[in-house]
Amino acid sequence: MSVAAVEPATAAGETLLKVENVSLSFGGVRAIRDVSFDIRRGEIRAIIGPNGAGKTSMLNVINGFYHPQAGRITYKGATRRRMRPHQAAAQGVARTFQNVALFKGMTTLDNILTGRTLRMHKSFFWQLWRYGPALNEEIEHRKYCEEIIDFLEIERIRKEPVGRLPYGLQKRVELGRALAMQPDLLLLDEPMAGMNLEEKEDMSRFILDVNAEFGTTIALIEHDIGVVMDLSDRIVVLDYGNKIADGKPDEVRSDQKVIDAYLGVVH
Amino acid sequence: MSFVYSIFVDPFVQMIGAPDLLVQTLWEGLVGGVLYALIALGFVLIFKASGVFNFAQGIMMVFAALTLVGLHEKGVPAFLALALTILVMFALALAVERVILRPLVNQPDIILFMATFGLTYVLIGLGELVFGGNPKNMITSELLLPSGSLDFKTLGGLVSLQKIDIAAAIIASLMVAVLALFFQKTRIGRALRAVADDHQAALSVGISLDQIWVIVWFTAGLVALATGIMWGARSNVSFALEIIALKALPVLILGGLTSVPGAIVGGLIIGIGEKLGEFYWGPLVGGGIESWLAYFIALAVLLFRPQGLFGEKIIERI
Fold it and tell me: For residue A188, is it within any domain?
């Protein structure tokens, strides 16, 4: 763990992202209905809920894939109605995907290097020849990525095309790519889906380490309630696009609405 | 028996008997092959970055060459015309992104493919409208490209290398090398491959699709310009050149649609193969096999390696 040049967690508790009265629908399907919550700097915030509750849609709204029909999103003090995904990325929002969206033909190292895209500035001209400033820049970023690879313990697969890796490792590479962006806000969509117990423990450890050592704010979606309760500082519970609970793990655990949603009480 | 002999023995006897002719044939095949590789490279660039087979690549080559020559005819100095043509190719890339690609984001590949058909006819029309439809001569000497030939008295005969062919081979090899490196080892190169693999993931790491597409089409336009100058110098500049671009199809099938080295090796195999085939085996069937041998080779490759010699293996986890 020696990734250099990390911004320290500034004043934990200050609001980093605020979602207010957001509604999103696709034709007649109302995926999110009037949901509000906030994410504080430095915390691990979980979004849980049964299948189809609107969790992934919520992440997609935050990083600009979807544009909500109503509501406001305030990120780092600036309020906006719509933002394009690469703008969100430029402002420090990184994410992973539920179904692993890696660049399958590329190696682990190249995948992680794409995370540095926004931090590489040398011009097209130099890049074309891969000479001079562009080469120095390449080396510097390569070093950073090697440190991430070290941190995630994936040295063995540095040069493997990721399409060939087992699922658990692909998830880890995807986390690596997001970390390479040095994000302020890291969105993880089911980081532990489809993993065995050992892999889940590893992933949990990485998430906690990232949060503790880089001070990265994390919002995660996860189905394994045990893991969520252990990892997160606060939890938002969605059901059918509505927010039904919001609070510390213990409060959420004992909330009657949450129990009903998970046990499938008739609405 | 004599038929088998004439296929499997006689041509090789001829090759050894007249090494000067063999070297001459190999050289011509090599130059043709390098140029095929360059055209194929234009296709590969766009295919890699947007998953679209750009049917208009051939016409982009003609259009670039025509713009260059046409501007010169209108009195623009040669190198200024070259610079202006590069600008025109950049404008074309911008226009393609804005007018064709952006509105068709997330559409099936076949839709984009059809759109490139449309682009082909727009470019043909535009080219004829502005510069006329008559064949033109490439401004070879004005661009300081060499002409004439180098003759070697060797191997018991005469081997003659056209200087323009030597220049073409050198320039094409350089471009191919630079592009291969660019694709593998730089930020933009990685971004291009990333966009081809997964749009959503590419967006999430901050890659702007619009910008990448402009870069790709501009690079393909530059490749088209270089190819246009070289082919134009060997024959002349007219829309008939587009037929040559179609030769890139077997090259692509042979080398694999996604592979830069594949485009190069495929181009060389096709270029040399068709010259040798024409010269030594052609007479057996009355000649003229040069025009279809390439497709025959490609077909054979398709049977055994559908992804081409160097194409990405299709990995599918279950």
Answer: no
CA distance B206 to B200: 10
Look at residue A7 and tell me whether its pLDDT is greater than 50.
no
Whether residue A73 lies inside any domain: the answer is yes
Look at chain A and report how many structural domains it folds into. 1
Pick among B184, B187, B208, B222 to test the A interface (most A CBs inside 10 A): B187
Nearest CA to CA, how far is B244 from chain A (Å)? 28
With a cut of 80, say whether residue B105 has pLDDT above it: no
CATH number of the CATH domain containing A72:
3.40.50.300
Interface size between A and B, measured as CB pairs under 8 A: 98
Q: Which helix or strand (DSSP H or E) is residue A80 part of?
A: strand A78-80
Q: Is the pLDDT of residue B314 over 60?
A: no
Q: What is the DSSP string of B32-85?
A: HHHHHHHHHHHHHHHHHHHS---TTHHHHHHHHHHHHHHHHHTT--HHHHHHHH
Supply the CATH classification number for the domain B2-304: 1.10.3470
Tell me whether residues A86 and B203 touch, CB distance under 8 A: yes
Model ipTM value? 0.70
Distance CA(B212)–CA(B195), nearest Å, equals 8
Q: Tokens in use for A31? A: 């995926």
Q: Which amino acid is at B195?
A: V
